[in-house]
Amino acid sequence: MTLAVSHGDIACSRWESGHVSRVFVERTGRRWIPVAVFAAVLAVGGCTAEVDGDPTAAPVSEVSPHSSDQSRDLRERSVTPADFPAGYSATEVTGGQLGAVLGDTAGVAAGGTVDPPTCAPRQLSSDSGDAIAFVATGAGANAGALSAVTVLVDTPLAELQADLERCPTYTTDTEGAKATVTTTVLPSSPAQSEESLAFRRVTSSGSMTQTMTALVGQNDGIRVYVTYVASGQRPPDGMALDQLYTTALSRSRG
User: Fold this and answer.
1) Rg (alpha carbons) of the chain, rounded to whole number
2) Strand, helix or coil at 23?
3) What is the residue-wise DSSP string for 65-86?
4) How far, in Å, CA of 4 to CA of 69, rounded?
5) pTM, rounded to two decimals
6) Which CATH code for domain 25-59+66-252?
7) Can you tell me the distance from the alpha carbon of 167 to that of 105, in angstroms, rounded to the nearest whole number?
8) Least enclosed by CB within 10 Å: which of 15, 106, 187, 227?
9) What are the residue boundaries of the structural domains of the chain, listed by start?
10) What is the distance between the terminal CA atoms of the chain, rounded to a whole angstrom?
11) How many CB atoms lie within 10 A of CB 10?
């Protein structure tokens, strides 16, 4: 499937969930809230050719190529908790949890090993000022987690799609927790963006399965990921996903 770059005014609710991974769970009040730290256990189907060598740790970039002006501008081009749909109370992710969320968004936790090693996802920069992330959960015992990540990048979105298509499936091992990650590229959103991409990632580890539906857009080196993570293979809250993605893209264009 080729990358579909589309131009339009609004996004359509036509994506269904399909991501499995481990999530970090935080207790807030009387509810257990998944906080999009799903990097630890992933397995993605793909890379059918055999690869020699042992699994290697996912590379982590410690140096940011972005200017301080770009970093200062990033917050102005990110959504805020007030932009989340009704029923979703968002919290900004900071400190060490930000790096975990970015690793999970990329497809493997920092320090985790990937097999085959050539399928190790590219890590997103967690340097100060390079990324902003918000996470929220919907109402109800079975509600999923809705998140928005705005991050500075120096590669085109087409390269991410090429990586997803080249390695639709791989396995990860993070501190002994093994998972299989399977990614399917979906039709992209019609929301206006220089580049756009949609995919479903299903992560399985033992008896646990999680599905992440992601809408991704990129404008002028600023990439936006809006994702919905649910246990099992339940469909996402399509209306909320589309609404937040459309807003996030509008903000990213400045």
Assistant:
1) 17
2) coil
3) -S-HHHHHHHGGGS--GGGSPT
4) 31
5) 0.76
6) 3.40.1000
7) 16
8) 187
9) 25-59+66-252
10) 30
11) 12
